[in-house]
Every structure is written in structure tokens, then in C-alpha cells.
Design brief:
The chain has 190 residues and is an alpha/beta fold. The protein is 54% helix and 8% strand.
């Protein structure tokens, strides 16, 4: 196993990968964090997978919230590890990704399994960030306005809105706004 390059943030990672691709020197696996300046990890994963579909991406982050796991996996991550992972686990995740397999931190795997076995419902199904997004949706904010308010990318805001609708089993932003009013998260509009 060899480190091909390093990058300080998602945008720099994309620039380096594009340059490596131009020289036909793409690595087999990218190891990426989720919280980075200029471009968050979930957005970077999506762009990496779009530009370089054969490239496998493994997340190594300190965030184990299911919302972040879902966002990373939805963008195409082939692995998800927490930063307290042992070196052997990191190596195993990278090797699994190179073989086309998915490797999940045991805590993350338990969380995903728990969601399947006993999914939470209503407001309890939402993370605190998703509740924030729900309030902003109820206030009539666009995805771009939500992104600006929460200092995230528009794509991440869109993912959060989709997760809120899916978890609450709603079909539209209007239904989400009504739900937020009924739950007392925002006052009814006059």
C-alpha cells in the first residue's frame, strides 16, 4: 500500500485527482474526511464518483451520526470508519474497497442495522441538523438559502431535505412545513 498524494480539503483533492487522471496515475482508493474547508466530504465524494466512477472512496471521520453515514454512502462511499479506528481497520477498509467491497465501522454498522430493525418515527427519526433543516424549510427557505444559513453546500442541503422528507414519509416541502407547524417547531403563518 502506498500513499499517492495528500490534500488539505475536498477541492484540492479533486484538483489532484483530475491531474493524476490526466497522467493515468489515479489511485485505487481515496481516504477522505467529511468535515473539510471549501468543500465538505460528502460533496467531494459525489464529485469524485461522477468524474472518476471507478475510484473507490473510504470515509475516515470523527462523525458517526447516521445522517452523515447516509450522506456519504448515498454519494458512493465504499467504506465508513471513525477516527478511533485501529490502523489494521483502516488497512482492511482500504483493501476491501480496492476489492470492490464495502467496509463499515462496527458502530456504524450497528446504527444502520438498528435503523432497519427498529426505525425511529416522527421527529425522533431526525438528527438535530435535519430538525434545523426542517425549520428552515417551514420558513420557506430554498436549498441555497438553507446551505448559506448552515454553511454547507447546496448539494448537502438538498440531501438533508430529501432525508427529512424520506424519514417523515412526506412527499413535498409543503407537507414538511405543515408537519413542522403541527409539531410546534415554527409558528403558523398568518
Amino acid at each position: 500500500m502506498e500513499v499517492a498524494a495528500e490534500a488539505a480539503d475536498g477541492q484540492e483533492a479533486l484538483t489532484r485527482l483530475d491531474s493524476m487522471a490526466a497522467h493515468r496515475e489515479l489511485p485505487d482508493v481515496v481516504l477522505i474526511d467529511l468535515l473539510m474547508p471549501r468543500m465538505d466530504g460528502a460533496t467531494a465524494i459525489g464529485v469524485i464518483k461522477q468524474r472518476h466512477p471507478g475510484l473507490r472512496v473510504v470515509v475516515l471521520t470523527s462523525f458517526g451520526e447516521m445522517e452523515r453515514v447516509h450522506a456519504a454512502l448515498a454519494q458512493g462511499a465504499a467504506g465508513y470508519l471513525l477516527k478511533d479506528a485501529e490502523a489494521g481497520e483502516v488497512v482492511a477498509a482500504i483493501r476491501a474497497a480496492a476489492r470492490g467491497e464495502v467496509f463499515l465501522d462496527p458502530e456504524v454498522a450497528r446504527g444502520l442495522t438498528q435503523e432497519i430493525v427498529s426505525p425511529p418515527t416522527g421527529l425522533a427519526a431526525l438528527t438535530s441538523r435535519e430538525r434545523d433543516v426542517l425549520v428552515l424549510v417551514a420558513e420557506g427557505r430554498s436549498n441555497q438559502q438553507i446551505a448559506d444559513e448552515l454553511v454547507i453546500s447546496e448539494r448537502t442541503a438538498r440531501t438533508h431535505v430529501s432525508n427529512v422528507l424520506r424519514k417523515l414519509r412526506l412527499n413535498s416541502r409543503t407537507q414538511a412545513a405543515l408537519f413542522a407547524v403541527r409539531q410546534g417547531l415554527v409558528p403558523p403563518r398568518a
